[in-house]
Structure formats: structure tokens, C-alpha cells
Amino acid sequence: MTSSTIVNRYANALADVVTAPNSVIPPAEAMAQLRTFYASTSSVPELQAVLASPAVPKARKRAVIRSIAATLGLKQVIVNFLLVLSDRRRWSALHEVIDALDLVLDQHLGFERAEVKSAYQLSDAQGNELQRELERVAGRKIRLSIAIDPELIGGVTARVGSTVYDGSVRGQLAKMRQSFAANRF
Fold it and tell me: Angle at CA 106, nearest 5°, toward 102 and 107?
């Protein structure tokens, strides 16, 4: 595991490049290309071992990265970023850097993360409507992360920053229980 300071340094550096006005690649495409590269290489343990090994010459690693990147059609800025990670012996941090970059890009682009738990799988229309409503209530752009919570009876809960919006049946029942308890004679 690489320190979060180092991971964030690489994520911020790439975020600065892809969000610059003269960037040759949109942030979403940069994320997609990094994820594609990671998925392609992480599925082959031997390849990961070669790319992470200090015993393998730098030139050999660079050739492997360039070959895979060419096959995937990656933009040069992404290839250069991958080469820097390899040259600096930070290859094992690639997945962490991608995750950190996702968060940093959201910050750069003005998105707030919302963690939503639903009793069941939401349709695209329901997810879009929920996103619009959360954006209206929160007053900023929202990026949803939706998970199924089988313990919910029905409805959804959403956490935006430190605020929790509880639209679940379980939450409504708890509010009713509290109301009845407060109004006892």
C-alpha cells in the first residue's frame, strides 16, 4: 500500500492536466482509459508482477506499457502518466491512484458525492430523478453511487457529505415511533 500523500500527488497532477483548458483529453475519457488499462493488466498476474518488479529493466517495462496502450488506443497523455508511474516505481499504486483521481476530478468539476442505499435496484429513470432531486436539495451537482441494502424495507437513503436524507420505510417507521413515544400521556 502506498501512502495517501503520494497517491493524491499523482492523482492531483493528472487531474490538473486533464482539466486544463487546453487538455487533449476530457476528464471522463481519461478515467475510462485508465480503468480500461488497469482492467486489461490486472487480469494477468504475471504482467502485474513484471510491471511492479524492480528487477525488470525500465526499458522493458516501458515497452510493455506502450504496447498495451497502443493496442487499447490510449491517448499519449495517459501513456505518459503510466510511464511516469512505472519509472518512479509506483506501479503497485495504480488502482489507488485511479480511485483518488476519480474523487479529485469530481472536486475539480464541482461534483458532490452521494452514497445512496436502496431496498431494490433502481431503474435508470429512477436514478436520474433521484439525482435531480438531490441536486435540487443540496444545491450542487451530484454524482451518485448506488448500492442495494437488503435491510431496507423499501425506499432509499442518501448521504451527501455529512447530511443524510432518509426516505426509507424503516426511517419513516422510526420517526413515527419517536413521535408516538413523545406524545405519550
Answer: 120
